[in-house]
From TrEMBL:
<dbReference type="InterPro" id="IPR042100">
    <property type="entry name" value="Bug_dom1"/>
</dbReference>
<dbReference type="Pfam" id="PF03401">
    <property type="entry name" value="TctC"/>
</dbReference>
<feature type="signal peptide">
    <location>
        <begin position="1"/>
        <end position="20"/>
    </location>
</feature>
<dbReference type="InterPro" id="IPR005064">
    <property type="entry name" value="BUG"/>
</dbReference>
<protein>
    <submittedName>
        <fullName>Tripartite tricarboxylate transporter substrate binding protein</fullName>
    </submittedName>
</protein>
<comment type="similarity">
    <text>Belongs to the UPF0065 (bug) family.</text>
</comment>
<keyword id="KW-0732">Signal</keyword>
Amino acid sequence: MQRKRVALGVLGAVSTLVLAGFAAVDASESTSGATPRSKLTIMAPAAPGGGWDLASRESQQALRSASIVNNVQVVNVPGAGGTIGLGQFTEIGADPTQLMTTGTVMEGAITANRSPVDLLDTTPIARLADDYEVLIVPADSPYKTLEDFLEVWRENPHGHAIGGGALGGTDHLLTGLVAREAGIDLGQLNYVSFAGGGEVLTSLLSRTVEVGVSGYNDFRDQIEAGNLRALAVSAEEPVPGIDTPTLIEQGVDVALPNWRGVVAPPGISDGQRQELIDIVGEMVRTPEWADALNRNKWVDSFLAGDDFTRFIKEDQARVDAIIEELGL
């Protein structure tokens, strides 16, 4: 450019160094001058169509529609119960324009996959909502109720395959907890792990497995179309809009929420963290987010900042204890 070809002498050189210094400071504050209000990228550490992808895209829509953030993008990094995405996320640097969606499944995968990093290696921002698991069979299955299945499962645990997500994830944990409460030898479990709810559905409809376990929204369309029957939901209390009894209501004392939340990269400043907390706090108060909760049958469980950090620490310990107890 013409400006670069003009010799400005010593004063120009000094000015250039000063401006370069300011540019470096600005870059450390935010990538390419972007701020969380102008640009956000949300990583969904799973393939499109799963629970984290849905939560990420619902957040994207609410943030855009309510004009909280000008430009919101979602990127998918699937694999290993979210720990591949987690590993990449902790290496991107202190960029306050990045968020990652996370939840219970990742906690289990961190332990099961012996991940070198965990959620406390990120900067926790907020828990958003609780999602719930369902136990599913095809509509023409001989199992009309949960007890129908438990009866034959007790007789021959290994002879009845159950399909779900990643080893150590919420689906696996729920299967183990239900088996334990039903008096089934956990060493006899025949649990088949799949990459996501879509593969679980395929295996269920092809009769590769007898029972499927995944998030309610992975199966919702097929339930409403009458192709699948939900035997139980993993909530502590009945969930409005889900016409399926809880495990507890059916005499199995198990409840396991699948929470959804967002974290930022490690190393961002306290001010940048607070700005992200404020942004997410504004989002969860919008009509768009209220609509997302209603449509997806999620239960509001907003928790932010240090309270969310303490929750992660306690919940990871709880999940670790379940995995150890169940020998998963």
